[in-house]
């Protein structure tokens, strides 16, 4: 009974703890005050911007720490927090509307650590301050819209097909069509089934047929409504100038929007609820654009800029508005060139058909209209919105258009995708409402961090003081394991990308500190028992560890079950708690069993002992 | 150092009947209180709006109430939170008003007098979200209990499984009862704490049961009662030390962790006591009353069909 570990085991323990310590270390470096610049729709973040920002800031005489070009944004690190607002104002003025400038805190992790993929723990909103919104998409409205459209569609297509009906009417979730005779009804069902794969038709008797949306189609509608809303939220959040926003779906009909660092929730809400619309208008070919640019705009026309900054003179009459768009998607035409497919509802189709029949061969423009918030407020304290119009596409009409047409001649697939996104954004299929909101002020966030740290510190101190008193030198071993455990929790939390530290998460760490010594208590009590039974010290150590092992494993696995269930059903802060609890259980098993054994073996193992300091 | 030196076995099980009566009374009391007083459900479950604001000097609650009354929030609950400078304002969900703007309206009303008011947090939860959470929370608790029952039954024996789940249900009901009697706010973090209590109590129960199983196999003689007593005595020292260290850190959390964590720390502090008690007097006693015996716990050494199954009771 020598109680020696093979060398590789010692090395493994040291290596595991060292790796965790390495990945935990970015948390020690703190954060730099920074300003983050990202591109709006019409601009790009590139080296040119890099140079411009550099010269601008040098000219303003601001002492910056560094500027770096990251994946999608430019990050300017500053020496102190007071500069942050100044720099933002300067850059907003010099870069104009094409770029979004946001305040940020960037981790001050040294480059060599960052190149290893190490980064500090992510802090939850309750520690960082910020707003959390849970938004719900009104799926009923989305489905209702589809049913209304179905009703419209039937009327038109049956009329076109010369199938005479008595009436078409919407009944909650279905559309009923009544005919004059059975023969027409059968023909109609045949015809409609062929043209509407997503619908289920049924002969209801009394010369009436009904149509409902298939499960598959319902699912598609919901999915589409949710995705569309997420896209729109992304666009709007980008305007808010928030560093590291989170926009994700939750469940089948909800969207989580998290905006760290935002204080003015009223403003955030107004922007998120802003609207965008779309218009199709003819390009005015009767007048010269150059005259208009010089200020002589004809009365029936309007001068607008396109996305490349070129002026376009458009007819003031609106041929069609975006709310008639049912779907827009990007794809490729038969020659492999990018294109955008647009589907309109039947009313839109009629308008389009009517508007284009005399204009074949002429250019048609698509205008995107957004209401962007300004920094001014009116006398009621409401934010003033500025109407922002932009020509996003000009295409030549090739033929008389109906309720489904396509725009070709687009430069790149990315451009096509972007255009289809904008087209969809201009036609919201389902309204959205806020069902949950949590705002944490920055002072409370900071305070929560301090309180959490204090609780961890005092909890740790009490245990560190107690263990050596009760278990003497073995108590010191347990203390070393406890500290290693803490480092490992922080290291693992920093390594896992999705793990977020929250206030309950910090409480979870405190709890782990108290419970992690349990494994050592079990082992030490066992060793004492073995000694009392008259075994030699080396035997006592060996048996103590061996017989405590299965107890520790069972006890921890059951707690792990509770933590995993908590993780599965919990949201936000509670999830944070379950993550730290689960990680803490796993790391504490490693440090308390393998870690302390390595330490005990290297100190007491391999020699004759007469007594143990336990 | 050894503080707890039990040379002779402590006859824990001789007190099992009084303990059972005591526990039954506590459970009945808890159930009655839960039925009559119910839980003081927090915002997470009821829905509504909570606003925490900070003043520069101790806040005048009466003045805050009056300010709110003037703008039509007469039903608001106003109280101090954590310190005398901090005020918590609670608003029930209301019809007609767009609830997501309530927080901003309240802040405007409080700032109208020109006083400096610091917005610390605003939380708004829609009523249907709260309902879902209540369902999910209850479900989580149930799923946790079932998973644990399965694990313990598989690893040990069905009598132990039932005993430990009985102990857990006991702990959960009495902890909820405490929150109901004291009318402490029950929010999501407290729910998390209750699940952590389940984890802790179970930890304790497993350690005790593990020792009972070991002793049944090791000691040739002895009635089940005696063996259980010996096992409990042997683990007593560990039980006290571990609950002691856990209590220490929880006290640190209670006193240093701030007001947001109070409910969490309270639930755990209480849960540690009740969990330690239940692993002795509920888990072990139930397993014993179900007739646990030496034969049930002997290791199955020969792998043959049916050998790994428990004999019928």
Task: Provide the fold topology.
The complex is a heterodimer of chains A (614) and B (313).
Chain A: H1 7-24, E1 31-39, H2 47-60, E2 64-69, E3 73-78, H3 82-95, E4 99-107, H4 111-114, E5 122-123, H5 125-128, E6 130-137, H6 139-160, E7 165-171, E8 174-179, H7 182-195, E9 199-205, E10 208-213, H8 215-240, E11 246-250, E12 254-260, H9 265-272, E13 276-282, H10 289-293, E14 301-305, E15 311-315, E16 320-321, E17 325-332, E18 338-344, H11 346-356, E19 363-377, E20 383-396, E21 404-407, H12 413-425, E22 432-440, H13 442-495, E23 500-501, H14 503-532, H15 537-569, H16 572-604
Parallel strand pairs in A: 5-23
Antiparallel strand pairs in A: 1-3, 1-4, 2-3, 6-12, 6-22, 7-8, 8-10, 9-10, 11-12, 13-16, 13-19, 14-15, 17-18, 18-21, 19-20
Helix pairs in contact in A: 1-13, 2-3, 6-8, 13-14, 13-16, 14-15, 14-16, 15-16
Chain B: H1 16-36, E1 40-41, H2 43-46, E2 48-55, H3 61-70, E3 77-81, E4 83-91, H4 102-111, E5 117-125, H5 127-155, H6 158-181, E6 185-186, H7 188-218, H8 224-256, H9 262-289, H10 294-297
Parallel strand pairs in B: 1-6
Antiparallel strand pairs in B: 2-4, 2-5, 3-4
Helix pairs in contact in B: 1-6, 5-6, 5-7, 6-7, 6-9, 7-8, 7-9, 8-9
Description:
Chain A is α+β, with helices and mostly antiparallel strands. Chain A has 16 helices and 23 strands. Among the domains of chain A are: about 5-25 and about 440-605, Up-down Bundle (Multidrug efflux transporter AcrB transmembrane fold), CATH 1.20.1640; about 275-435, Gyrase A, domain 2, CATH 3.30.1360. In chain A, about 50% of the residues lie in helices and about 25% in strands. In chain A, strands 2-3-1-4 form a four-stranded antiparallel sheet. In chain A, strands 11-12-6-22 form a four-stranded antiparallel sheet. Chain A is elongated. Chain B is an alpha+beta fold and about 325 residues long. Chain B folds into two domains: about 10-40 and about 130-295, Multidrug efflux transporter AcrB transmembrane domain (Multidrug efflux transporter AcrB transmembrane fold); about 50-125, Alpha-Beta Plaits. Chain B contains ten helices and six strands; from the N terminus they run αβαβαββαβααβαααα. The longest helix of chain B has about 35 residues, at about 225-255. Strand 22 of chain A pairs antiparallel with strand 5 (about 115-125) of chain B, so a sheet runs across the interface.
């Amino acid at each position: 009974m020598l109680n020696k570990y093979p060398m590789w085991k010692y090395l493994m323990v040291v290596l595991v703890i060292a790796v965790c310590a390495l990945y935990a270390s970015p948390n020690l470096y703190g954060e730099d005050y920074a300003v983050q610049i990202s591109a709006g729709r019409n601009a790009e973040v590139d080296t040119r911007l890099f140079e411009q920002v550099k010269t601008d800031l040098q000219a303003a005489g601001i002492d910056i720490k560094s500027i770096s070009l990251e994946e999608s944004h430019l990050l300017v690190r500053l020496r102190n927090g007071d500069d942050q607002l100044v720099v933002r104002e300067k850059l907003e003025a010099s870069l104009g509307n094409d770029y979004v400038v946001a305040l940020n805190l960037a981790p001050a992790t040294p480059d060599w650590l960052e190149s290893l993929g190490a980064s500090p723990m992510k802090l939850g909103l309750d520690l960082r301050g910020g707003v959390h919104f849970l938004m719900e998409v009104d799926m009923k409205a989305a489905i209702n819209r589809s049913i209304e459209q179905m009703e419209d569609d039937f009327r038109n297509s049956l009329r076109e097909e010369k199938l005479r009906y008595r009436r078409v009417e919407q009944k909650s979730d279905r559309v009923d069509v009544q005919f004059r005779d059975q023969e027409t009804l059968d023909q109609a069902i045949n015809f409609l089934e062929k043209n509407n794969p997503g619908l289920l038709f049924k002969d209801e008797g009394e010369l009436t047929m009904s149509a409902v949306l298939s499960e598959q189609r319902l699912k598609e509608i919901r999915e589409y409504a949710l995705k569309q809303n997420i896209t729109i939220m992304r666009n709007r959040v980008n305007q808010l100038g928030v560093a590291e926003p989170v926009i994700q779906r939750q469940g089948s009909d909800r969207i989580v929007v998290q905006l760290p660092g935002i204080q003015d929730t009223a403003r955030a809400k107004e922007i998120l609820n802003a609207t965008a619309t779309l218009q199709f208008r003819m390009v005015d070919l009767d007048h010269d654009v150059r005259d208009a640019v010089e200020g002589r705009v004809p009365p029936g026309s309007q001068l607008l800029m396109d996305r490349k900054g070129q002026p376009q003179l458009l007819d003031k009459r609106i041929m069609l508005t975006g709310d008639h768009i049912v779907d827009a998607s990007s794809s490729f035409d038969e020659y492999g060139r990018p294109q955008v497919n647009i589907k309109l509802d039947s009313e839109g189709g009629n308008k389009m058909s009517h508007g284009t029949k005399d204009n074949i061969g002429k250019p048609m423009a698509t205008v995107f209209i957004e209401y962007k918030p300004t920094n001014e407020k009116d006398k009621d304290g409401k934010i003033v919105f500025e109407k922002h119009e932009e020509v996003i596409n000009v295409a030549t009409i090739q033929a008389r258009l109906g309720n489904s047409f396509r725009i070709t001649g687009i430069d790149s697939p990315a451009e096509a995708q972007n255009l289809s996104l904008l087209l969809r954004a201009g036609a919201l299929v389902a309204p959205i409402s806020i069902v949950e909101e949590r705002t944490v002020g920055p002072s409370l966030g900071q305070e929560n961090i301090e309180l959490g740290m204090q609780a961890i510190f005092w909890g740790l101190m009490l245990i560190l003081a107690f263990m050596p008193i009760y278990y003497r030198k073995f108590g010191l071993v347990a203390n070393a394991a406890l500290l290693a455990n803490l480092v490992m929790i922080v290291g693992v939390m920093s390594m896992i990308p999705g793990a977020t530290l929250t206030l309950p998460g910090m409480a979870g760490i405190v709890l782990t500190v108290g419970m992690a010594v349990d494994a050592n208590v079990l082992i030490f009590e066992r060793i004492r028992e073995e000694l009392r039974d008259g075994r030699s010290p080396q035997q006592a150590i060996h048996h103590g560890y061996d017989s405590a092992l299965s107890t520790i494993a069972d006890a921890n696995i059951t707690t792990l079950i509770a933590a995993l269930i908590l993780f599965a059903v919990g949201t936000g802060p509670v999830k944070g708690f379950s993550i730290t609890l689960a990680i803490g259980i796993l790391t504490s098993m490693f440090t308390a069993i393998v870690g302390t054994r390595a330490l005990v073996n290297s100190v007491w193992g391999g020699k004759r002992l007469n007594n143990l300091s336990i | 150092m050894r503080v707890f030196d039990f040379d002779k076995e402590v006859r824990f099980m001789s007190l099992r009947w009084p303990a059972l009566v005591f526990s039954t009374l506590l459970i009945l009391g808890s159930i009655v209180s839960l039925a009559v007083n119910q839980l003081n459900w927090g915002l997470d479950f009821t829905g509504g709006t909570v606003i925490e604001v900070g003043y520069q000097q101790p806040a005048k609650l009466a003045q805050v109430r009056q300010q709110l009354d003037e703008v039509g929030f007469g039903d608001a609950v106003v109280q101090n939170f954590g310190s005398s400078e901090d005020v918590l304002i609670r608003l029930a969900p209301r019809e007609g008003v767009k609830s997501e703007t309530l927080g901003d309206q309240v802040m405007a009303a409080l700032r109208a007098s020109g006083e400096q008011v610091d917005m610390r947090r605003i939380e708004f939860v829609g009523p249907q979200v709260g309902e879902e959470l209540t369902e999910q929370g209850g479900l989580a608790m149930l799923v946790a209990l079932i998973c644990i029952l399965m694990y313990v039954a598989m690893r040990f024996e069905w009598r132990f499984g039932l005993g430990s789940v009985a102990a857990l249900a006991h702990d959960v009901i009495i902890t909820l009862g405490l929150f109901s009697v004291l009318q402490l706010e029950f929010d999501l973090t407290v729910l998390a704490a209750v699940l952590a209590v389940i984890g802790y109590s179970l930890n304790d129960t497993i350690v005790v049961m593990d020792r009972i199983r070991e002793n049944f196999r090791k000691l040739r003689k002895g009635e089940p009662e005696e063996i259980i007593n010996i096992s409990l005595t042997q683990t007593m020292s560990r039980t006290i030390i571990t609950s002691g260290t856990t209590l220490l850190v929880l006290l640190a959390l209670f006193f240093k962790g701030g007001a947001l964590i109070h409910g969490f720390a309270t639930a755990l502090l209480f849960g540690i006591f009740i969990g330690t008690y239940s692993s002795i007097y509920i888990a072990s006693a139930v397993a014993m009353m179900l007739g646990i015996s030496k034969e049930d716990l002997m290791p199955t050494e020969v792998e043959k069909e049916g050998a790994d199954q428990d004999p019928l009771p």
